[in-house]
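// run 5 | inverse folding | seed 20
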């Protein structure tokens, strides 16, 4: 037992040291990635876009689209590969393993998980495994969402369950090779699992996951179940009962034991979690889709974790619907996208307890994901949210389904290129991940 404890402490120290070294370097990488992951040094070469198939468009299948982002390449700004996976699965989120050799991409409808080899030829990923028994193996979890790297493991968040397709769900742990390990169910009122319920809710809902290894902390957020996210958005918003079935919690877990410790009320469906990189910055941010607020999840001076709303995002009465967020590598800025008005906003978070908006810009008719380079010099955007929620038309002059690349310079976004996914008959682009030859000695 003593050796096991020592090895755990050693692993935590090494992970914290690695995170500190990575944050100090001028590397290019998504800043929302796991601190356990290998980092890209220099310019990213490719962006992998997990894309939803659309009936009547191209081959109608979900696919992994590879875009060349090397400024000096002859194919800069072009799609260099599109690998279809068969059928439409509600393609949503993807994540790289800790060694960045494999990309996991999941479907919220079919609960299939597709594992791509991105190291053999980074410009041309290969599908090497499809996991089609996720629901059975996990004990009834539906809708694998976040694919998050831990040492030799992938932690997947679920959004739903097979019993009632509601929001009750779990975390599901796999090996990097794709073998099921175990399931960790979210705490609920009838089974708190030892957690402290600090407010009114213990709903058992899930969405995103992030970790702070040096604090031995894992944090999860919450969304809604299959019944809601597969419903037409207009129908959903008109259904008062369905609108009550959204998550209102953030949970702080013990990272090593995978046990929930404290449940916070965060009303309005807290979505993406982004944690600070600085060695003394013990906090993470999330945004609430339905109440349009930025929340801070932080460790106070007494070593207790707390949660509070710290800023508004636009005008909540206009339902901007905050979606993706991205924290800068120096912990000074936070990008926030609002899907319904197609805007990206930038907040100064030098004081994390009092974020201040310093910029906003309309990117398209709608917007979803944002990924920024580690050095803060490039920002990328995609547009699709969910198949049954996406808009079907755009105002004249506004892009509807796109991948857009920008340089970030002197406080302004400088557009470099756009890939129109509808015109290219590729589908609707959702999440992005970066790739580079340099990672594998190529």
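// decoded
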């Amino acid at each position: 037992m003593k050796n096991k404890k020592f090895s755990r402490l050693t692993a935590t120290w090494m992970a914290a040291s690695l995170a500190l070294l990575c944050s100090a370097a001028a590397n290019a990488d998504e800043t929302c990635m796991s601190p356990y992951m290998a980092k890209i040094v220099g310019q990213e070469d490719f962006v992998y876009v997990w894309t939803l198939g659309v009936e009547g468009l191209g081959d109608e299948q979900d696919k992994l689209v590879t875009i060349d982002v090397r400024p000096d390449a002859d194919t800069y700004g072009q799609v260099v590969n599109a690998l279809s996976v068969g059928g439409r699965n509600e393609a949503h989120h993807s994540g790289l393993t800790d060694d960045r050799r494999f990309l996991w991409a999941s479907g919220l409808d079919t609960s299939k998980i597709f594992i791509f080899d991105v190291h053999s030829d980074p410009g041309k990923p290969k599908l090497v495994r499809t996991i089609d028994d996720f629901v059975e193996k996990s004990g009834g979890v539906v809708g694998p969402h976040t694919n998050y790297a831990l040492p030799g493991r992938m932690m997947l968040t679920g959004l739903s369950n097979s019993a009632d397709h509601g929001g009750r769900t779990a975390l599901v742990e796999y090996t990097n090779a794709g073998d099921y390990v175990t399931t960790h169910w979210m705490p609920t009122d009838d089974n708190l699992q030892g957690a402290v319920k600090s407010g009114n809710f213990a709903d058992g809902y899930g969405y995103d996951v992030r970790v702070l290894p040096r604090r031995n902390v894992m944090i999860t957020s919450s969304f809604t179940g299959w019944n809601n996210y597969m419903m037409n958005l207009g129908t959903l918003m008109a259904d008062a009962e369905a609108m009550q079935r959204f998550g209102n919690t953030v949970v702080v877990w013990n990272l090593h034991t995978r046990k929930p410790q404290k449940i916070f009320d965060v009303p309005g469906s807290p979505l993406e979690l982004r944690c600070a990189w600085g060695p003394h910055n013990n906090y993470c941010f999330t945004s609430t889709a339905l109440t349009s607020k930025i929340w801070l999840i932080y460790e106070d001076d007494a070593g207790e974790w707390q949660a509070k709303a710290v800023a508004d995002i636009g005008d909540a009465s206009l339902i901007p619907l905050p979606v993706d967020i991205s924290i800068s590598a120096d912990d000074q800025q936070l990008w926030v996208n609002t899907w319904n008005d197609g805007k990206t906003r930038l907040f100064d978070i030098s004081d994390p307890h009092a974020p201040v908006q310093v910029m906003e810009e309309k990117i398209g008719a709608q917007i979803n994901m944002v990924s920024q380079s580690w050095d803060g010099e490039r920002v990328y955007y995609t547009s699709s949210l969910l198949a049954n929620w996406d808009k079907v038309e755009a105002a004249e002059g506004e892009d509807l389904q796109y991948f857009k690349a920008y340089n970030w310079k002197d406080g302004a976004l400088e557009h470099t290129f756009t890939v129109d996914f509808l015109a290219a008959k590729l589908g609707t682009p959702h999440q992005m991940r970066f790739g580079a030859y340099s990672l594998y000695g190529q």
